[in-house]
Amino acid sequence: MQAIRIYTHSIRQVSRNLGPALRITLAPMLLQDVAISVAEHFTQPAGTVKDLAQSPLPIAILAALLAVTIFCSSWMAVAWHRFVLMAELPGGILPPVHAERMVAYIGRSLLLGLSLVAVEFSGAVMLMLFSGMLGAVSRALALLVLVPGGIALLVVLFTIFYRLSVMLPAAALGADASLKTAWEATEGASVTLFTLAALVVGTAIVLVLPQAIFYRAGLMVFAIVWQVVSGWAVMLLMLSVLTTVYGYYVQKRTLV
Predict the structure, then answer these.
(1) Quick one: pLDDT at residue 164?
(2) DSSP secondary structure letters along the chain
(3) Residue range(s) defining the domain that contains residue 212
(4) Residue 100 predicted with pLDDT over 90
């Protein structure tokens, strides 16, 4: 199955390049962790709830944290896409900063996100209206439509995301990254890309599950360590899948 081939190719893409992967992600992830620690320190309630709500400091700190997170995420993503697709190796401990490509990446991410929100909102409204009409006749009949309808909407959203996801690596490379180009490049791949999305989500759940087990067992150190490691692995898997999808469907690369 094509989805499994893309999935395994993406995993090998990471496992065979652990050194460059660490060089690309280590500094941005450390910067994110520092920003989170600073934000947590400054947003601790120092007075009454009313005083905290009236103070602009927490909002400013959270806005700064969001900006740092977006910067670091796009920094890692652009560097990884360019490393895999252009063999652009990091020159040192810091990945290269391509400011123009990062801005384009953020812009395309927002466009992709807005497209998904529009589809989700439209689908949810139609589903609620239809189930509401059926609910006037029978509550059981409404639920019979609402539950599978909600699942179907998720299937559509995941499929659209992966079909349009080639916009992101394209933005990192400076190639055409329009919605139309992305949709045309992945024509006929809806079933494959949805299956791929299911594999990625399933892997993420499996990787994150031990963290909850450690927390419930009171093993906080193990839980924190696992959170960092599993978060890193899931992030790289997602980036690698996007890279592989672009390489296969747009650049017509072979899967190994």
Answers:
(1) 93
(2) -HHHHHHHHHHHHHHTTHHHHHHHHHHHHHHHHHHHHHHHHHTS--S-HHHHHH-SHHHHHHHHHHHHHHHHHHHHHHHHHHHHHH----SSSS----HHHHHHHHHHHHHHHHHHHHHHHHHHHHHHHHHHHHHTT-HHHHHHHHHHHHHHHHHHHHHHHHHHTTHHHHHHHT----HHHHHHHTTT-HHHHHHHHHHHHHHHHHHHHHHHHHHHTT-HHHHHHHHHHHHHHHHHHHHHHHHHHHHHHTS-PPP-
(3) 2-249
(4) yes
pLDDT band with cut points at 50, 70 and 90 for residue 32: confident
Q: Does residue 11 sit within a domain?
A: yes
Residue 256 lies in a domain: no
| Total domain count, the chain | 1
- 255 assigned to some structural domain: no
The length of the chain is 256
State phi, psi for 55 to the nearest 5 degrees. Answer: -85, 135
What pLDDT shows up at residue 50?
47
Decide if 48 is inside a domain: yes
